[in-house]
Amino acid sequence: MCNTSIIMLGLKVIIQCAFLMVGLSSEINGDIMPMDPHTVGGQRDPNNCLIGAGYTWCGSSQSCIRQWITPCEDHFTDCIDCLNRQKNGENIACPQECDLINLDCNTDKDCDTNHFCRVSSLDIDGPKQCVPYSNEGESCGGYTLPANQMRCSPNLECANTMGPMIADAPGNCMRPCKPGNTRDSYGNCNQLRGDLMIPELRPSDPLPPAPASAPICPEVMCMMYCSNDFQKDANGCDMCICNEIHNPECPIPYSDCNENVCPKVTEVTQCSEGGIPDYTTYQLSLIIKDENIKNIYALFGSEYDGHLMIIPGAYQINNVFGSNIGGVSTSLIGVNQDSNYDSWLTIGITDGDIDNKLGTIGIDYESWTVDSPLSIVNGAVFLMNPSEDTINNGELIIGQLTLPSSRYEEASINIQGKLKDGSSWIQYDIVFTLNPPPIIGANTVPNTVVPNNCEVWFDGCNTCQTNNGVLGACTRIMCFREETPYCLRLTSGH
Question: pTM of the full predicted structure?
Answer without folding.
Answer: 0.45
